[in-house]
UniProtKB/TrEMBL annotation:
This is Phytanoyl-CoA dioxygenase family protein. Residues 1-20 are annotated as: Disordered. It comes from Rhizobium ruizarguesonis. SUPFAM superfamilies: Clavaminate synthase-like (SSF51197). Residues 1-15 have a biased composition (Polar residues).
Length: 320
């Protein structure tokens, strides 16, 4: 049995996670519906997956506290089916825990222009990331697809001929991340993030690649960088996958010798890892400046319906 599945799920053991935040809001507002709880945390520094119209209807009719209590009870059983250290079921396009760097996927002009958009749209902590497919004047679909193809061509093993990689539109973003001098108490996930995976419970181990492309130099030194854990996890973690401050010792226990790497990348370089790889914003007290990033997610088109509340069939751009 792993630590992940052995630890009992306690109401207050989710500090700093979306679940913990929802629990806190529901406890403080016992009459809130689940929808009011969700809307409340979404307004407040959390960028959560938007529920579908059908889901909103159901969530509006159920009490928040009661629904979260049921969910908490179900969580342990749900994870038992998918221990993080079980043998992998789906083949990943890049192994979990690995990352690679592809130099200069953006030129200097593109870097400057995108950073300018961030100055304009993301100047204040708590502003949620900008979805590029909702703002097509920022970067064209062709340009985003070209960057994604460049990254795919750099994979150590080329994709099988049956793979149908596609851009996940809703997760193609500009995000600003602040230095501790600018944002002393990290909270929410709109900007700085604790350890998490980019997949979700439903998408789970379906192949996904994250492309992380910083727009300023000095990431990890003068401005926030990104850290990854090389643990070869097989599944999404319901307890830790969205945001966790406590996952490192659990992963070291499961995968002895696990290392954390602070990623090195110049402005316009792309760092690529898979959607199960745990990563977090890296900051230290010396940093004074913010760092912006262009984020692109690539998934297998056939799995698109498992991503997001409405299914993503109309939310992808095929790359082949
Ligand atoms: O850029 C960052 O600091 C965090 C970004 C991140 O982890 C994400 O968007 O999944």
């Amino acid at each position: 049995m792993t630590l992940e599945t052995a630890s009992p799920v306690q109401p207050n053991s989710h500090g700093g996670t979306p679940f913990g935040e929802m629990w806190r809001v529901a406890e403080q507002n016992p009459a809130y519906s689940l929808l009011e709880v969700l809307d409340s945390i979404d307004r407040d520094a959390w960028d959560i997956e938007t529920p579908s119209a059908d889901q909103r209807g159901v969530y509006a009719r159920v009490n928040g506290q009661a629904a979260l209590r049921r969910l908490r009870e179900a969580m342990k059983g749900m994870q038992d089916e998918y221990p993080l250290d079980a043998p992998p079921r789906r083949r990943q396009w890049l192994a979990s825990g690995c990352h690679i760097r592809v130099e200069a996927v953006l030129d200097a002009r593109q870097v400057r222009e995108l950073a300018g958009h961030c100055d304009h749209l993301l100047h204040t902590a708590g502003m949620r990331p900008v979805r590029l497919f909702e703002n097509p004047q920022i970067l064209s679909e062709e340009t985003i697809a070209a960057i994604a193809r460049t990254a795919l061509a750099a994979l150590p093993q080329s994709l099988s001929s049956s793979a149908r990689p596609a851009l996940l539109k809703r997760r193609t973003l500009l995000r600003r991340t602040f230095s501790p001098a600018q944002l002393p108490n990290a909270h929410g996930n709109a900007n700085n993030q604790f350890w998490h995976q980019d997949s979700n419970q439903k998408f789970n181990d379906a192949p996904m690649l994250t492309l992380w492309i910083p727009l300023q130099g000095g990431a990890g030194r003068t401005c926030p960088g990104l850290e990854v854990i090389d643990a070869p996890v097989s599944y999404f973690s319901i307890l830790h996958g969205d945001s966790s401050q406590t996952v490192c010792p659990i992963l070291s226990d499961m995968f002895p010798g696990t290392k954390i790497t602070s990623l090195e990348a110049a402005a316009g370089d792309c760092v690529m890892f898979n959607g199960l790889t745990f990563h977090q914003t890296a900051t230290n007290t010396e940093m004074r400046e913010h760092r912006d990033v262009l984020l692109i997610r690539i998934i297998e088109a056939a799995d698109a319906a498992h991503f997001g509340p409405n299914g993503a069939a109309d939310g992808i751009v095929p790359l082949v």
